[in-house]
Design the sequence.
């Protein structure tokens, strides 16, 4: 779980556009972020295996 203060700080409008920080919309984690799904790899894996992300299926071969 990310610090609440850092999540609030990331939601504010940055002074410069290069200061924008991508964070997971589920847990607020800044690392392992996937832009296509707006979430981190951990939340993506959990939600994909539960079938809650449309169009994503668990790979098996």
Sequence:
């Amino acid at each position: 779980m990310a610090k609440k203060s850092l999540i609030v700080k990331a939601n504010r409008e940055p002074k410069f556009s290069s200061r924008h920080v991508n964070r997971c919309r589920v847990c607020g984690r800044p690392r392992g972020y996937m832009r296509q799904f707006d979430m981190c790899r951990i939340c993506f894996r959990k939600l994909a295996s539960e079938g809650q992300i449309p169009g994503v299926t668990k790979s098996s071969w």
